[in-house]
Design goal:
globular, two-stranded antiparallel sheet, Serine Threonine Protein Phosphatase 5, Tetratricopeptide repeat, cell outer membrane, signal
Length: about 500
């Protein structure tokens, strides 16, 4: 019997001569033609696709890679963890790997994204032939298409030109593929989302938590189109979400209070659903890294692994309600002691540390909180629409209405009128930085607009006094281990 195992795009084929295994129906993995014959098997195959997403975010890598590279948050300055912040990584990711931190690096994104894509491809190919309820079968295929698009988007925004995988790997030869231009990658992402939109149901109160819906596909379509510079297309799809009337903005407090995440669903279109449990697939290192070390009002115990630049906090208006998740003190559980800013983490040279509380959960099990990780929410639809409208039609009344909806919720009033389209778009980018800090978004706003070269060097402190990204840092290098395993895979030109 031939058994196939995947690590990223590399493929290992093992053989066994066990005649008993040849006679058995293989259910040990989803990568087999014998699967998908029943509705329950189709559901299990889809669960495996979501599983890759949860493994990706359990590691924390999508947020760590983005946040530690940008101008809002930074990691504790230790070997292997500081490489993203000082732009000292290489195609081997040698420092991260040798220090056991590859799961915090772009390598983890590459590996888990392609595992998810492979799992999705089997669902998309096999489930159409499954004998089951037609509506649910279509939804399963739609969810797999959505997730395949999400994984390809995760790869494109991090690595640029990557391998497009749209068929299941049933042979060794099929495992090896060339990279495609980033424009073609976005073509495939959008094609998958267009198809997913026709198959997925609208959001409803009965929607299973954490599952993709038609509106999630529309918003991911809008965001991918914005990243690809297809502004009119981004605007149309953001408007679809806004006019669906399926979602509404909730208060900032409800949005980021762990105990109120069911209330937050009114705004959140798609999230990684976590819980304060010992089940590792329902945990994430993000909670652990954002909490101070001793048990506190943040967690039962954290790593003190990442903090906010004080300059970023100071860029926000005092009245901005989003500032309530930034703090310069915390309360230690033992003795109910308030720990001052200078003592938040004495291991660092920087003393004006700021804690980020979007993943704060006093009811955490150990260091792991129940806060969901938001991947798509309604505020993004408003700000995508504002940016795309300004780029397409200028700083119109509609553009102002979109951005002011988010500003109004934050209690900072309307944006000053009469701005030029260029200044208006810059204002949207600044608004996005205040709205989505700590959610793994900022780095990609800086790279897609090529502002990272001028903005990032201004985000410094005592631990990181100099930060000098180069043009090649717009995209991360393809992991060398994958190039070594795939004779058709080449390195990004800037990293050769």
């Amino acid at each position: 019997m031939k058994r196939i195992f995947y690590t990223g795009l590399s493929l290992i084929v093992l053989f066994t001569s066990c005649s008993k295994m040849l006679d058995e129906k293989a259910y040990s993995g989803i990568y087999t033609k014998d699967f998908y014959s029943t509705a329950s098997e189709a559901e299990s195959a889809l669960t495996a696709v979501y599983g890759a997403l949860y493994v990706m975010y359990s590691s924390g890598s999508p947020l760590f890679v983005a946040e530690w590279s940008a101008d809002q948050m930074f990691p504790r300055n230790v070997v292997g963890r500081n490489t993203l912040t000082v732009f000292s990584y290489d195609p081997l990711y040698s420092v991260q790997t040798s220090n056991g931190r590859s799961n915090e690096s772009p390598v983890e994104i590459w590996k888990t994204a392609y595992k998810g894509i492979e799992a999705a491809n089997w669902v998309i190919e096999k489930v159409p032939g499954t004998n089951m309820d037609t509506v649910r079968r279509n939804a399963i295929i739609g969810e797999a298409l959505f997730l395949r698009a999400f994984f390809h988007w995760s790869l494109a925004k991090n690595f640029g030109s990557v391998v497009i995988k749209t068929s299941a790997t049933a042979s060794v030869d099929a495992a090896f593929n060339e990279r495609s231009p980033v424009e073609k990658v976005y073509d495939q992402i959008i094609a998958d989302l267009n198809r997913a939109e026709t198959l997925l149901p609208d959001y409803a109160a009965s929607t299973v938590k954490g599952r993709a819906t038609k509106q999630a596909a529309q918003l991911l379509h809008a965001k991918a189109a914005l990243y690809a510079g297809r502004n009119a297309e981004a605007l149309v799809n953001a408007q679809k979400v806004l006019t669906s009337n399926k979602y509404s903005l909730v208060s900032n407090t409800d949005l980021f209070t762990a105990a109120k995440k069911d209330v937050a669903r009114a705004e959140v279109l798609f999230a990684v659903e976590l819980s304060n449990t010992t089940n590792p697939i329902r945990q994430s290192q993000i909670h652990y890294f954002c909490a101070p070390i001793p048990p506190s009002d943040y967690s039962k115990g954290g790593a003190g692994g990442m903090y906010v630049y004080s300059a970023f906090m100071n860029s926000m208006a005092t009245a901005d309600k989003r500032r309530e998740f930034l703090a310069t003190t915390y309360t230690q559980t033992a003795g109910n002691v308030v720990v001052p800013q200078a003592s938040i983490d004495t291991r660092l040279a920087t003393k004006d540390l700021v804690l980020m509380g979007k993943y704060k959960d006093p009811a955490a099990v150990g260091a792991y909180g129940s806060n969901n990780i938001y991947l798509l929410r309604l505020a993004d639809a408003y700000l995508i629409a504002a940016e795309a409208e300004a780029k397409t039609n200028g700083a119109t009344i509609n553009a102002y209405n979109y951005i002011n909806a988010v500003r109004g919720r934050a209690n900072i009033g309307n944006l000053v009128s009469g701005l030029s389209p260029t200044v208006f778009v810059d204002s949207v980018l600044r608004e996005r930085s205040w709205e989505f800090y700590g959610e793994g978004d900022r780095w990609y706003d800086l790279t897609r607009t090529d502002k990272f070269l001028t903005v990032v060097p201004t985000a410094v402190n005592a631990d990181y006094p100099v930060r000098t990204p180069l043009p090649k840092h717009k995209y991360f290098p393809i992991p060398q281990i994958e190039i070594n395993a795939n004779p058709k895979l080449t390195q990004n030109d800037a990293w050769k």
